[in-house]
Amino acid sequence: MNYMLITGAASGIGAATARRFAREGWLLGLLDVNAEALQQLNKSLGGQHWHQALDVRDEAAVEAAIQAFGAFSHGRLDLLLNSAGILRVGQFEDIPLAEHRLLMDINVTGLLQVCHKAFPLLRVTRNARVINMSSASALYGTPHFASYSASKFAVRGLTEALNIEWARHGITVQDIMPPFVKTPMVDSQTFKAPVIERLGVNLTPEDIADAIWQAAQGRQVHNPVSLQFKSLVAASKVFPARATRKLMDLLSR
Q: Can you give the residue range of the structural domain that contains 214?
């Protein structure tokens, strides 16, 4: 039996991924700040999965939750999906500093804490794997997404480092890099970012869940999603960084 632990599991990409892996016969651990939504998700999946409310910023709570999951999974953790995250779009100086800090605390520190506390379970599970939700905004800093983009650069860097460092333990570490996805997180933004208006929101959570499933079958560290973004990634390897900057500038006007 394979066991998967998902943060940010109550909605959006986390919930879609839970449904995708449950269809494949995996047993799941579901973590999110929204306890009621977790209960509803578990019920819709047949009720056999473990779930617990969790704020990933709380180190002690993260450790306790992962220990509780370990009891459920008999000490196994085949796949950790770090999907918890928030988004704030707007002019950098117009967003209160407290909101920038909250974003970094959840998207970076929270993810780091989950990885750190989950390591004992990952280490003793053969062919264990971590998949982190990064973003297309980790390719080049994205205007109006400044702190979010910075957080995803951090996720990308952590993924690259741990992919090498944890190889000695047999743990594969990867990330998923999608452009804009139609989730409550994106839909809730009131600032109309030009880059979203120009590129559109063309992916669904189910598209990303499928990409996560595919990534879990391979070893590729960075996994860009959508032909549009894959083309940009390929171009960035050929053209100088100033060309990517110019494109980003044009898209953000």
A: 3-251
